[in-house]
Amino acid sequence: MTTAIVILNWNGEKYLQQFLPILINNTSLTDVEIIVADNASTDSSLSILQEKFPSVRTIILDQNYGFAGGYNKALAQVNADYYVLLNSDVEITPNWLEPLINYMNEHEHVAACQPKIRSFFSRSHFEHAGAAGGFIDKFGFPFCRGRILGTAEEDKGQYDTISDIFWATGACFVVRSKIYWKVGGLDDAFFAHMEEVDLCWRLKCRGYRIVCIPESTVYHIGGGTLNVESPHKTYLNFRNNLLMLYKNLPTKLLKNIMFWRFVFDYMAAIQLFITGKPRNAISIFKARLHFKQMQPDFEEKRKENILFSTCDNQSEVLQKSIVIEYYLKGKKTFSALLGK
């Protein structure tokens, strides 16, 4: 079985020089190719790759297609059994890849998996984008084993068991190439943010498993492209989350969930206004407006997803509101959510 580690780069010359040598020196499996796909960078990324990393294959894209479109265009040029999507700002560790590939080889119904994601700057703690595996609540808000909303737990081994999850993080995950294309890959229209959750939702609804393999650990900087406070990041997260819900929710749940999302989104906007972030609050209204404008273009995608869905009820979907559990009930760890 062949594996391609594909890093999508956009103006990441600093990260390439910092983390690519570590990746090269700690990836020992045979039949593994390391590839950097460049999303039309305007910095010195390409010259650095050519001069310092001639053994790394480079795919040059003609414009910035975002995370989703960039990966789709790059992966279409890659021939491998497994794709490893790896952010440029991730520091891998020795023997990081073996547990992931071995588990996939031994479990044919697992479509994708991720390692444990720790924070690069606070190395004993989980990182926001992935932690020990992703989940969503009934209203579509994502959270993780080890990270609930803005609270990241210290990793004390409490989530060191292999576990089925709802989504694997785009920061670092392995996916079977044939299944990736079978379900349509990442959705180009998302551009960036939530696209991996949407992909994993389609995988789950078609009966595939997604797991976290904590035996493998990587460290993620996060926010390398868009700062967490960025209004544009707020916009993309809210718009794409609504698109994802519309695409994937069963018909019997769609109307009710969308009503409550209207309520939660406006509550979030008010909270941002009160806390002195008016541009982020405006981004939520902009996201909802653009979702309505884009919705007709997603009708066919929704019909296709409903048609090929084999299971509506996902055990990895929390049948509660993560917002209420976190803010009103004070449940700020994954174990507390489960009552443990």
Give the SSE layout.
Layout: E1 3-9, H1 13-25, E2 32-38, H2 45-52, E3 57-60, H3 66-75, E4 82-86, E5 90-91, H4 98-106, E6 110-119, E7 134-137, E8 142-144, E9 147-148, E10 151-152, E11 163-164, E12 172-176, H5 177-182, H6 195-205, E13 209-220, H7 231-248, H8 251-274, H9 278-294, H10 299-308, E14 317-318, H11 322-327, H12 334-337
Parallel strand pairs: 1-2, 1-4, 2-3, 6-13, 7-14
Antiparallel strand pairs: 4-12, 5-13, 6-12, 7-8, 9-10, 11-13
Helix pairs in contact: 1-2, 6-7, 7-8, 7-9, 8-9
Kindly describe this structure.
This protein folds into 2 domains: 3-220, Alpha-Beta Complex (Spore Coat Polysaccharide Biosynthesis Protein SpsA, Chain A), CATH 3.90.550; 231-337, no CATH class. 40% of the residues lie in helices and 20% in strands. By secondary structure, the protein is of the alpha/beta class. It has helices at residues 13-25, 45-52, 66-75, 98-106, 177-182, 195-205, 231-248, 251-274, 278-294, 299-308, 322-327, 334-337, and strands at 3-9, 32-38, 57-60, 82-86, 90-91, 110-119, 134-137, 142-144, 147-148, 151-152, 163-164, 172-176, 209-220, 317-318. Strand 2 (32-38), helix 2 and strand 3 form a beta-alpha-beta unit. Helix 6 runs parallel beside helix 7 (231-248) and helix 7 runs antiparallel to helix 8 (251-274). The longest helix has 24 residues, at 251-274. Strands 1, 2, 3, 4, 5, 6, 11, 12 and 13 form a 9-stranded mixed sheet that branches. Strands 8-7-14 form a 3-stranded mixed sheet, with no helix packed on it. Strands 9-10 form a two-stranded antiparallel ribbon.
